[in-house]
Each structure stands twice: as structure tokens, then as C-alpha cells.
Amino acid sequence: MRKIEIGSERFTEVNAVDSPSFGGASSLYHINREDNHELVANIKFQKGLVKEHGVNGCFHEDLIAIVIDRLQSFQSGDFACRENALALTKLEEALLWLNHRTNDRQKRGVEGTFKE
């Protein structure tokens, strides 16, 4: 298990549970309470190519979309602020670039392969 430094650990800690493998990245993460280490969330990313292993986890885009949705909701309510707006912009940009990469790989016929 490898602790991921997230900048603020007042309430939770994030740990990569498995050893890096597919693409050099971990695919299983636990979010635990900082005070008693109780499991709060389990995040399982796709491991291996979908063509070979089927869909067996979530994708980066999924988690970014969740955070975008939450920030958009905050921005339309009592928690609207400049910092949320800036974070929302950066997350939307991150999603744009990940989708751009996917579209490029689809056009080149290399999506779902180890080819760059």
C-alpha cells in the first residue's frame, strides 16, 4: 500500500492498494478516514485493455465528471465562489484533453491498443 499525498489530510487519506502494473499505474485506491482509518470509498480503475478484459473498472473521465457535477451544483447554490469556478474550469479542461486524446487514438485506429 502506498499513501498518496493529497495536500490536505484533515479528514481522509488516499492509498494506492495494489502495486503498479497496467501502464505503470495502480488500479485500486482506498479512501479512508484519517482519524480511525475506516474505509470511506473504494475506487477501482479499468485494468487492462477493454477489448481483452472487458470493462472492469472506472475511467479517469468518470471521476472527473463526478467532481464537475458536484462543483456545478455548488456553483448554482450557496457554495458558489471564485475558487470553485477556477477548479471547475481546470477539471473541464482536463476532461477536454482526455477526450481529445481518445478521439485522436480513435482516428488513428490505435484506441484499445498499447500503440502510441
What would you note in describing this structure?
With 116 residues, this protein is α+β, with helices and mostly antiparallel strands. The protein has helices at residues 50-53, 60-75, 82-108, and strands spanning 2-4, 12-16, 28-33, 39-44. It has two domains: 1-58; 59-109. It is built from three helices and four strands, in the order E-E-E-E-H-H-H. Helix 2 packs antiparallel against helix 3. The longest helix is centred in the C-terminal third of the chain and has 27 residues, at 82-108. The two termini are 30 Å apart. The mean pLDDT is 92.
SSE map:
Elements: E1 2-4, E2 12-16, E3 28-33, E4 39-44, H1 50-53, H2 60-75, H3 82-108
Antiparallel strand pairs: 1-2, 2-3, 3-4
What are the salient characteristics of this protein?
116 residues; alpha+beta; 2 domains; four-stranded antiparallel sheet; 4 strands
How many extended strands? Answer: 4
Strand proportion, as a percent range, falls in: 15-25%
Alpha-beta classification:
alpha+beta
Mean pLDDT: 92
Radius of gyration using CA atoms only? 17 Å
Quickly count the domains.
Answer: 2
Compute the separation of the termini in Å. Answer: 30 Å
Please state how the strands of the largest beta sheet are arranged side by side. Answer: 1-2-3-4
Helix content: 40-55%
Please trace the helix and strand order, writing H or E for each element: EEEEHHH
Q: What summary fits the major beta sheet?
A: 4 strands, antiparallel
In short:
With 116 residues, this protein is an alpha+beta fold. The chain is built from three helices and four strands.
